[in-house]
Recover the amino acids of this structure.
């Protein structure tokens, strides 16, 4: 009986709390959204199941938890806390990304830049709610809708808030199809949503090869803090565009990025232990993250409308929403919104321009914040 009693003390039932139940339900809800709604399943399934693992309670000292030194989960989680996984994710993204749409219409880069307003407005809001400058900078980057960038910056500036920021960033990335359409419809008229844009011009192979090299040099000098992220992004893109490293590019955009995505999503989910995750600060972070994402979407749409005041070749303001760097979901939402008004209006390639520009913009913003507050 004594052995049995000790067993109960180390098990889940004796250590279970209402907080664990809440997080288990959240994890189940994430898995439900991924499977039934197809909301970012490659992210939400690992994160959701990780939440289930992270909230099965046990007695401390068993060396199995993610916050216990030298446990398996703890070692894997170092890729998040030390900022290893995000640059590796960017390598795969670079190997998948085609910058042709952006290069054929450089003015659309401004939409990607405009969408970063959400980052800096949320930064101010977080300071007003009592967060430190470092914490506020990490929270603000959620507005870029770029999970790896949010994890990278918070691992450097606000490691105590890493779990809440990571889950918030990936949650809003997954909810792009839910959040963005109402904002787009609210800020645009039917006539604006019917605007047809001229087809993109072809881009030479030479320009596609030179671009990642020059773009890295320029962004690296502007924001050295971003070289880990953008260095891997543009390196991956060079592997793709060079034409002589297809095996490396193929590995980077398939098996390699899949492995890192599994490890990152799973360990981020497992880090959401209720005792550490369910705090007033976490609630504030989720609220600020929602506001940041909405502001970023609205900024891109409104800036497109402003650009139309000074140009003959009108921009469909729907694509301004793609300035957040949720690639390619934001671009798909823009295509869906345009096709709903006019089934023959194809916006996807136009939307990819601010979408990939947003990836670069959010990484540059993170580099600026890192250099300023590190």
């Amino acid at each position: 009986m004594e052995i049995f009693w000790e067993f109960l003390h180390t098990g889940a039932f004796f250590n279970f709390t209402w907080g664990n139940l809440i997080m288990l339900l959240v994890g189940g809800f994430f898995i439900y959204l991924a499977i039934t709604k197809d909301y970012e399943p490659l992210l939400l399934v690992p994160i959701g199941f990780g939440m289930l693992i992270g909230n099965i309670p046990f007695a401390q000292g068993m060396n199995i938890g993610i916050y216990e030194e030298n446990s398996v989960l703890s070692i894997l989680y170092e890729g998040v806390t030390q900022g290893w996984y995000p640059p590796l994710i960017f390598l795969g993204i670079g190997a998948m990304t085609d910058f042709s749409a952006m290069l054929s219409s450089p003015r659309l880069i401004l939409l990607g830049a405009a969408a970063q307003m959400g980052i800096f407005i949320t930064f101010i809001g977080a300071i007003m709610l009592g967060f430190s400058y470092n914490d506020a900078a990490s929270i603000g980057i959620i507005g870029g809708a770029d999970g790896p960038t949010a994890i990278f910056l918070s691992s450097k500036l606000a490691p105590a808030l890493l779990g809440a920021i990571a889950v918030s960033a990936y949650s809003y990335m997954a909810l792009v199809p839910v959040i963005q359409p109402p904002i787009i419809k609210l800020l645009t008229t039917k006539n604006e949503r019917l605007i047809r844009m001229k087809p993109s011009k072809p881009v030479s192979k030479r320009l596609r090869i030179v671009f990642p090299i020059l773009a890295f040099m320029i962004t690296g000098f502007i924001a050295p803090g971003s070289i880990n992220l953008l260095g891997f992004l543009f390196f991956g893109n060079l592997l793709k565009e060079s034409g002589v490293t297809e095996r490396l590019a193929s590995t980077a955009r398939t098996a390699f990025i899949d492995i890192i995505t599994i490890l990152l999503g799973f360990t981020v989910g497992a880090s959401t232990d209720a005792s550490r995750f369910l705090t007033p600060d976490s609630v504030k972070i989720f609220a600020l993250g929602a506001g940041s994402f909405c502001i970023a979407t609205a900024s891109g749409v409104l800036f497109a409308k402003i650009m139309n005041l000074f140009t003959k070749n009108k921009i469909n303001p729907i694509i301004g929403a793609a300035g957040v760097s949720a690639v390619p979901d934001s671009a798909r939402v823009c295509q869906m919104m345009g096709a709903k008004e006019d089934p023959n209006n194809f916006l996807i390639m136009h939307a990819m321009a601010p979408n990939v520009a947003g990836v670069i913009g959010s990484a540059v913003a993170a580099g600026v914040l890192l250099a300023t507050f590190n």
Notes: Residues 300 and 320 are 4 Å apart (CA to CA). The chain has a mean pLDDT of 90. DSSP finds 21 helices and no strands in the chain. Residues 280-308 form the longest helix (29 residues).
